[in-house]
Specification:
Blueprint (H helix, E strand, L loop, with lengths): L1 H28 L15 H4 L13 H14 L10 H20 L18 H16 L4 H13 L5 H20 L61 H14 L8 H9 L4 H14 L1
Helix pairs in contact: 1-4, 1-10, 3-4, 3-5, 3-10, 4-5, 4-7, 5-6, 5-7
Protein backbone atom coordinates (compact mmCIF):
# COMPACT_ATOMS: atom_id res chain seq x y z
CA UNK A 1 0.00 0.00 0.00
CA UNK A 2 2.83 2.40 0.82
CA UNK A 3 4.45 1.73 -2.54
CA UNK A 4 1.15 2.27 -4.39
CA UNK A 5 0.63 5.56 -2.53
CA UNK A 6 4.18 6.68 -3.32
CA UNK A 7 3.81 5.83 -7.02
CA UNK A 8 0.49 7.68 -7.11
CA UNK A 9 2.11 10.76 -5.58
CA UNK A 10 4.92 10.66 -8.14
CA UNK A 11 2.45 10.44 -11.04
CA UNK A 12 0.43 13.29 -9.57
CA UNK A 13 3.54 15.44 -9.20
CA UNK A 14 4.54 14.84 -12.83
CA UNK A 15 1.01 15.65 -13.96
CA UNK A 16 0.97 18.92 -12.02
CA UNK A 17 4.41 19.78 -13.42
CA UNK A 18 3.19 19.05 -16.94
CA UNK A 19 0.03 21.07 -16.34
CA UNK A 20 1.93 24.11 -15.06
CA UNK A 21 4.40 24.14 -17.92
CA UNK A 22 1.69 23.42 -20.49
CA UNK A 23 -0.41 26.35 -19.25
CA UNK A 24 2.58 28.67 -19.48
CA UNK A 25 3.53 27.35 -22.92
CA UNK A 26 0.01 27.75 -24.28
CA UNK A 27 -0.14 31.29 -22.91
CA UNK A 28 3.20 32.34 -24.37
CA UNK A 29 2.32 30.83 -27.74
CA UNK A 30 -0.40 33.44 -28.11
CA UNK A 31 1.67 36.45 -27.06
CA UNK A 32 3.46 38.89 -29.34
CA UNK A 33 6.84 37.83 -30.67
CA UNK A 34 10.10 39.57 -29.74
CA UNK A 35 11.58 42.02 -32.19
CA UNK A 36 14.60 39.89 -32.97
CA UNK A 37 15.26 36.29 -33.94
CA UNK A 38 18.72 36.13 -32.35
CA UNK A 39 19.17 33.89 -29.32
CA UNK A 40 21.70 34.52 -26.59
CA UNK A 41 22.95 31.00 -25.97
CA UNK A 42 24.77 28.82 -28.48
CA UNK A 43 23.88 25.18 -29.11
CA UNK A 44 26.63 22.78 -28.10
CA UNK A 45 25.65 19.15 -28.34
CA UNK A 46 28.73 18.07 -26.43
CA UNK A 47 27.62 19.93 -23.32
CA UNK A 48 23.85 20.21 -23.51
CA UNK A 49 22.60 17.21 -25.44
CA UNK A 50 22.85 13.47 -24.77
CA UNK A 51 26.01 11.81 -23.59
CA UNK A 52 27.15 13.79 -20.57
CA UNK A 53 24.26 13.08 -18.21
CA UNK A 54 23.23 16.73 -18.06
CA UNK A 55 19.59 15.68 -18.28
CA UNK A 56 19.81 12.34 -16.51
CA UNK A 57 16.35 10.89 -15.93
CA UNK A 58 17.61 9.40 -12.68
CA UNK A 59 18.07 12.82 -11.11
CA UNK A 60 15.42 14.99 -12.71
CA UNK A 61 11.71 15.04 -13.38
CA UNK A 62 11.33 13.93 -17.03
CA UNK A 63 9.00 16.85 -17.73
CA UNK A 64 11.77 19.25 -16.74
CA UNK A 65 14.32 17.13 -18.58
CA UNK A 66 12.58 17.53 -21.94
CA UNK A 67 11.65 21.12 -21.23
CA UNK A 68 15.32 21.97 -20.83
CA UNK A 69 16.20 20.08 -24.00
CA UNK A 70 13.74 22.22 -25.94
CA UNK A 71 15.11 25.36 -24.31
CA UNK A 72 18.55 24.48 -25.66
CA UNK A 73 17.13 23.82 -29.12
CA UNK A 74 15.29 27.12 -29.47
CA UNK A 75 18.34 29.01 -28.22
CA UNK A 76 20.54 27.42 -30.86
CA UNK A 77 21.24 29.73 -33.82
CA UNK A 78 19.63 28.25 -36.92
CA UNK A 79 17.77 25.41 -35.18
CA UNK A 80 14.41 27.18 -35.05
CA UNK A 81 12.66 27.94 -38.36
CA UNK A 82 12.91 31.69 -38.84
CA UNK A 83 9.19 32.22 -39.47
CA UNK A 84 7.80 29.95 -36.72
CA UNK A 85 7.79 31.32 -33.20
CA UNK A 86 9.45 29.05 -30.61
CA UNK A 87 6.50 29.28 -28.22
CA UNK A 88 4.54 27.04 -30.60
CA UNK A 89 7.02 24.22 -30.01
CA UNK A 90 6.72 24.55 -26.23
CA UNK A 91 2.92 24.57 -26.42
CA UNK A 92 2.74 21.47 -28.59
CA UNK A 93 5.31 19.50 -26.60
CA UNK A 94 3.83 20.26 -23.19
CA UNK A 95 0.29 19.65 -24.40
CA UNK A 96 1.41 16.21 -25.59
CA UNK A 97 3.17 15.46 -22.30
CA UNK A 98 0.19 16.60 -20.26
CA UNK A 99 -2.39 14.58 -22.20
CA UNK A 100 -0.11 11.52 -22.23
CA UNK A 101 0.43 11.53 -18.46
CA UNK A 102 -3.22 12.37 -17.84
CA UNK A 103 -4.28 9.42 -20.01
CA UNK A 104 -2.60 7.21 -17.40
CA UNK A 105 -3.56 9.09 -14.24
CA UNK A 106 -7.00 10.32 -15.40
CA UNK A 107 -7.31 12.94 -12.66
CA UNK A 108 -7.60 16.07 -14.81
CA UNK A 109 -9.54 17.27 -17.81
CA UNK A 110 -7.66 16.41 -21.04
CA UNK A 111 -6.45 19.31 -23.16
CA UNK A 112 -7.11 17.82 -26.61
CA UNK A 113 -6.55 14.06 -26.59
CA UNK A 114 -8.47 11.60 -24.44
CA UNK A 115 -7.57 7.90 -24.59
CA UNK A 116 -9.71 5.13 -23.20
CA UNK A 117 -8.63 1.79 -21.79
CA UNK A 118 -5.15 2.94 -20.72
CA UNK A 119 -3.75 0.93 -17.82
CA UNK A 120 -3.05 2.93 -14.65
CA UNK A 121 0.15 0.87 -14.39
CA UNK A 122 1.63 2.29 -17.61
CA UNK A 123 4.80 4.25 -16.96
CA UNK A 124 4.19 8.03 -16.89
CA UNK A 125 7.95 8.57 -17.26
CA UNK A 126 7.99 6.56 -20.47
CA UNK A 127 4.88 8.37 -21.70
CA UNK A 128 6.52 11.74 -21.00
CA UNK A 129 9.72 10.85 -22.83
CA UNK A 130 7.95 9.29 -25.81
CA UNK A 131 5.51 12.19 -26.20
CA UNK A 132 8.21 14.84 -25.99
CA UNK A 133 10.57 12.96 -28.29
CA UNK A 134 7.88 12.36 -30.93
CA UNK A 135 6.94 16.04 -30.97
CA UNK A 136 10.51 17.32 -31.15
CA UNK A 137 11.52 14.91 -33.90
CA UNK A 138 8.54 16.09 -35.95
CA UNK A 139 9.36 19.76 -35.34
CA UNK A 140 13.16 19.47 -35.61
CA UNK A 141 13.88 16.51 -37.93
CA UNK A 142 17.46 17.69 -38.42
CA UNK A 143 18.10 16.84 -34.75
CA UNK A 144 16.61 13.35 -34.78
CA UNK A 145 19.89 11.54 -34.13
CA UNK A 146 20.55 13.61 -31.00
CA UNK A 147 16.94 13.35 -29.84
CA UNK A 148 16.98 9.57 -30.35
CA UNK A 149 20.01 9.32 -28.09
CA UNK A 150 18.29 11.45 -25.46
CA UNK A 151 15.24 9.19 -25.62
CA UNK A 152 17.41 6.14 -25.12
CA UNK A 153 18.99 7.78 -22.09
CA UNK A 154 15.60 8.67 -20.62
CA UNK A 155 14.12 5.23 -21.18
CA UNK A 156 17.21 3.45 -19.89
CA UNK A 157 16.32 4.59 -16.35
CA UNK A 158 12.91 2.89 -16.56
CA UNK A 159 12.71 -0.88 -15.93
CA UNK A 160 11.89 -2.87 -19.05
CA UNK A 161 8.54 -4.56 -19.24
CA UNK A 162 4.92 -4.13 -20.33
CA UNK A 163 4.37 -0.98 -18.25
CA UNK A 164 7.25 0.76 -19.96
CA UNK A 165 6.04 -0.35 -23.39
CA UNK A 166 2.51 0.86 -22.62
CA UNK A 167 3.83 4.24 -21.54
CA UNK A 168 5.84 4.63 -24.73
CA UNK A 169 2.81 3.72 -26.83
CA UNK A 170 0.59 6.22 -25.03
CA UNK A 171 3.11 9.02 -25.47
CA UNK A 172 3.55 8.33 -29.17
CA UNK A 173 -0.19 8.16 -29.85
CA UNK A 174 -0.94 11.41 -28.04
CA UNK A 175 1.94 13.25 -29.71
CA UNK A 176 0.83 12.09 -33.15
CA UNK A 177 -2.73 13.30 -32.58
CA UNK A 178 -1.75 16.72 -31.23
CA UNK A 179 0.70 17.25 -34.08
CA UNK A 180 -2.07 16.40 -36.53
CA UNK A 181 -4.43 18.88 -34.87
CA UNK A 182 -1.81 21.65 -35.22
CA UNK A 183 -0.64 20.72 -38.72
CA UNK A 184 -2.77 23.36 -40.47
CA UNK A 185 -2.77 26.11 -37.85
CA UNK A 186 -1.34 28.80 -40.16
CA UNK A 187 2.13 28.86 -38.64
CA UNK A 188 3.75 27.93 -41.97
CA UNK A 189 2.42 31.03 -43.74
CA UNK A 190 4.88 33.62 -44.98
CA UNK A 191 5.12 36.71 -42.74
CA UNK A 192 3.36 39.79 -44.03
CA UNK A 193 5.52 42.71 -45.14
CA UNK A 194 5.52 45.52 -42.58
CA UNK A 195 5.20 49.07 -43.88
CA UNK A 196 5.62 51.80 -41.24
CA UNK A 197 2.86 54.39 -41.11
CA UNK A 198 3.42 58.10 -41.56
CA UNK A 199 0.67 59.56 -39.38
CA UNK A 200 1.27 60.83 -35.83
CA UNK A 201 1.15 57.99 -33.29
CA UNK A 202 1.87 55.24 -35.82
CA UNK A 203 4.83 52.95 -35.17
CA UNK A 204 8.15 53.94 -36.71
CA UNK A 205 11.30 51.86 -37.07
CA UNK A 206 13.83 52.81 -34.42
CA UNK A 207 17.57 53.49 -34.55
CA UNK A 208 20.31 52.46 -34.60
CA UNK A 209 19.52 49.27 -36.59
CA UNK A 210 15.87 50.05 -37.49
CA UNK A 211 14.67 46.43 -37.05
CA UNK A 212 11.34 45.47 -38.59
CA UNK A 213 8.70 43.55 -36.63
CA UNK A 214 8.88 39.78 -37.11
CA UNK A 215 6.21 37.05 -37.10
CA UNK A 216 3.71 39.48 -38.60
CA UNK A 217 1.57 36.52 -39.67
CA UNK A 218 1.17 35.24 -36.11
CA UNK A 219 -2.19 36.97 -35.42
CA UNK A 220 -3.71 34.57 -37.97
CA UNK A 221 -2.30 31.41 -36.35
CA UNK A 222 -4.95 29.28 -34.64
CA UNK A 223 -4.80 30.03 -30.90
CA UNK A 224 -4.07 27.24 -28.42
CA UNK A 225 -6.55 28.27 -25.74
CA UNK A 226 -8.39 31.39 -26.93
CA UNK A 227 -11.49 31.21 -29.08
CA UNK A 228 -10.07 33.96 -31.31
CA UNK A 229 -6.74 35.77 -31.33
CA UNK A 230 -8.13 39.18 -30.33
CA UNK A 231 -10.27 37.80 -27.49
CA UNK A 232 -8.23 39.36 -24.65
CA UNK A 233 -6.60 42.19 -26.56
CA UNK A 234 -6.45 45.49 -24.61
CA UNK A 235 -8.18 48.58 -25.91
CA UNK A 236 -6.54 51.24 -28.09
CA UNK A 237 -4.19 53.89 -26.69
CA UNK A 238 -5.65 57.19 -25.52
CA UNK A 239 -6.14 60.01 -28.08
CA UNK A 240 -2.91 61.70 -29.16
CA UNK A 241 -4.14 65.07 -27.94
CA UNK A 242 -5.14 63.84 -24.47
CA UNK A 243 -3.29 64.61 -21.25
CA UNK A 244 -3.02 60.85 -20.59
CA UNK A 245 -1.13 60.25 -23.85
CA UNK A 246 1.14 63.24 -23.22
CA UNK A 247 2.02 62.05 -19.71
CA UNK A 248 2.75 58.49 -20.92
CA UNK A 249 4.82 59.78 -23.84
CA UNK A 250 6.92 62.00 -21.60
CA UNK A 251 7.44 59.18 -19.08
CA UNK A 252 8.63 56.75 -21.76
CA UNK A 253 10.88 59.42 -23.23
CA UNK A 254 12.42 60.26 -19.85
CA UNK A 255 12.94 56.68 -18.68
CA UNK A 256 13.88 55.25 -22.07
CA UNK A 257 16.69 57.66 -22.87
CA UNK A 258 19.95 55.68 -22.92
CA UNK A 259 21.62 57.88 -20.30
CA UNK A 260 18.44 58.85 -18.50
CA UNK A 261 19.14 60.62 -15.19
CA UNK A 262 15.63 59.84 -13.95
CA UNK A 263 15.85 56.04 -14.38
CA UNK A 264 17.03 54.02 -11.39
CA UNK A 265 19.52 51.18 -11.58
CA UNK A 266 16.74 48.70 -10.81
CA UNK A 267 14.64 50.06 -13.67
CA UNK A 268 17.59 49.66 -16.04
CA UNK A 269 18.03 46.03 -15.01
CA UNK A 270 14.29 45.39 -15.39
CA UNK A 271 14.32 46.80 -18.92
CA UNK A 272 17.34 44.74 -19.91
CA UNK A 273 15.87 41.58 -18.37
CA UNK A 274 12.56 41.72 -20.22
CA UNK A 275 14.15 42.65 -23.51
CA UNK A 276 15.08 39.03 -24.15
CA UNK A 277 13.23 36.17 -25.82
CA UNK A 278 9.92 35.74 -24.01
CA UNK A 279 9.79 31.95 -24.26
CA UNK A 280 13.13 31.59 -22.49
CA UNK A 281 12.37 33.83 -19.52
CA UNK A 282 8.78 32.84 -18.85
CA UNK A 283 9.46 29.18 -19.44
CA UNK A 284 12.26 29.12 -16.88
CA UNK A 285 10.12 31.07 -14.41
CA UNK A 286 7.33 28.51 -14.77
CA UNK A 287 9.87 25.69 -14.50
CA UNK A 288 11.24 27.08 -11.23
CA UNK A 289 7.78 27.72 -9.79
CA UNK A 290 6.54 24.26 -10.75
CA UNK A 291 9.59 22.58 -9.22
CA UNK A 292 9.05 24.51 -5.99
Amino acid sequence: MRMQKHVGQEISAKLHMAKALMALALLCAGLSAPGTSAYAASFDARHQMPGDGAFSAASINPVLQWNRILLEIVRAPGAQPATIHPTRSFAIMHAAIYDAVNAIDSTHTPYLVELSGVSRRASPEAATAAAAHSVLVALYPQLQALLDLQLEESLAEIPDGPHKRMGIQVGQIVAKRILALRSNDGSNAQPLAFVPGTDPGEYQLTPPTFPRPVFTHWPDVTPFTLVRAEQCRPGPPPPLTSDTYTAAFNEVKALGFINSPSRSGDQTEIGQCWGGAIQNYWNEIAQTAAAA
